[in-house]
Amino acid sequence: MTKEKAVRAVGLRRTFNGTTAVDHIDLEITKGEIYGFLGPNGAGKSTTVRMLCTLLSPTGGRATVAGHDVATDPGAVRLRIGVALQDVALDPKQTGTELLRLQGRLYGLSTRDLDHRVQQLRELIDLGDALDQRIATYSGGMRRRLDLAAALVHNPEILFLDEPTTGLDPISRARVWAEVRRLNAELGMTIFLTTQYLEEADELADRVGIIDHGRMVAEGTPAELKRSVGSDLIIAHVDGEAERVVRAIDVIPAVHSVEAHGNELVIATRNGSAAISPVAVALAACEVRVRDLTLRTPTLDDVFLDLTGMRIVHETEEAA
Amino acid sequence: MTAITDTRTIAGRALRAVPRDLEAVVPPVFIALFFFIVNIATLERLTEATPGFDYTAFQMATATLLGVTGVSRAGALVLDVQDHYFDRLLLTPVRRTAILLGHMAADVAVAVALTVPITLLGLVLGVRFTGGPIGIVAFMAIASLWSLAFAGFGYAIALKTGNPAAVNSSFLLFFPFLFLTSSYVPRHQLSGWLDTVAGLNPVTYILDGLRSLVLADGMQWDQLGKALLAIAVVGSISMAMCFSALRGRTARG
Known about the structure:
A: 2 domains
C-alpha cells in the first residue's frame, strides 16, 4: 500500500527576472515524516518553502500540499499548514496573547477553542507573564518561540519551518529540536524543515534533501547519504595543495576514494583503523608536512562536500 | 469564514492598534482645530463685506478636511510588510482583499471619530447644521468617505514600495488637494489660474457639499451629489491603485 503524501512536487521551478532560484525540484514527503531540506545560503530553500506555502507562485511545475494544489487551491493549503518563516513574522505592537488570539480568529476558531488553544500554547512556549506584554519587549529567542506558537494555533497537518534555529543560542536551539520531535511523535505532524545546519538535519530529519544552486543534488536518510561517502573518513590537512598527494593515496588498497579540497584531503575507506597507517606512511613518503590526521565517520557536511565540492558556510561563520 | 468576518477581524486588529499609535491621529486633529480657530481669527474680517456670510461655518469644512485627509493605517500596513507580519496574514486563509478592506473600515471609524471634536467646536462657535442631526451625520459621512478615498493612495504606495518614507511622502498629495481650492475664501473670490485649478480639483466640490450643510437653509441635493461624485472619482482611482498594488505584492511573494 502506498503511503499518503503530505507534500508532492514535480518539476517545481521559480525564476526571478531571468535568474533561476529553484530549478525543477521533485519532492515526495510522506505524512508523518520529518523532512530536512539542507543547503547553504541562497541555495533555493526559502523560495521552495514560499512556493509550497502559497506565498509565491511557481514559474513552472506543480506542487500539492495536504492533497491540494498550491497554485489552484491555495486557500485549502493554507488551512492545513503552519509556517514559521526564516524571519519571525510578528507585530511588535501587539502582545503575545493578542497575536495568538488574532491568529486563531483568522483560522475561524471559536472563542472557547481559542481560550483553550492559547492556554496550551502558553505552556508550550513557556513565556510566562511575558505573553501578555508587547512583543517589542521580547528577546530574539522569545520571538522565535512565539512565531512557532503562531504557526501552531490551528493544529496544522503540516508544519513548515524555514531555518527555525538560525541565530538561536544552543539552549533555545535544543528546545526547538525537542518541540519538533514532540510535535511529530505525539501529533503525527508532518514537518518540512529547512536548515543550513548539518547537525540539525542529522538530528531531526527522517529523510534529507540536499539542494544547491536551486537543484536537488541528493536525497535519502541521513544514514544512506553518509554511507554514500564511505564507512569511515580520514581527513588530513597538509601544508600547500593537497592535490599533489592524491595519486599516492589512491593506490592504497584500503582506500575507497580520495578527494583534495585546497589543503584538505578527504579519504573514504571501509575500514579506517586499517587504512590510517598506510595513509600516514604515504603522506610521509610524499614529503608533505601533515598538520593533522583525523579518523571519523562521515557527516552530512562530508556528503555536501562530496556532492558539490564545497562545505556549507553558515551565516554566522560568514559574518565572522 | 465569510468575507465580512475576515474584514471585521482585520478591522478589529487595526482599531485596537490606534490607541497605541496616537501619534498618527492626535496631530491631524490638533492641526485641524488649530487652523479652524486661527483662520477664523485672521480671515473672518475679509468676508465682512458680504452680509450674513458665516465664515466660521465656511471654515469648518476646511478644518474637517484638514483633520481627516491622510489619516489612515497605511503607515501601520507598511510596518507589517517590514516586520514580515504581512506574510503571516497572507499565510492564513483570510481573503487578500479583506486585509485591505479591514484596514479601510478602521480608517472610516477613525475618520468619524476625528470629525467629532471639530464638529463639537463648530457647534460651540455657533455653527448650525441644515437638517439638524441628519445634517451632522451627512457632514461626517462625506468627510469620512473623502478620508477613505484619499487613504487609497497611501495604501497603494505602502504596498507598492514597502517603504515607510515613501508612505509619508504621500502627504505631498495633500497640498494640491487641500490648498488649490476654495479652502480659505469662497470660490467666486478666486481668480486666474487658481480658479481654473480649483474647478478641476475634486476637493472644491467636496467643500461645497460640506458647506451646503452648514451655510444653506435647506438640503442642497445637487451640491451633495457633486461632492459624492467627486469622492467617487478620486476613490475609484485610489482604490484601483491600491488593489492593484495588493495583487502585485501578493504575486511577488
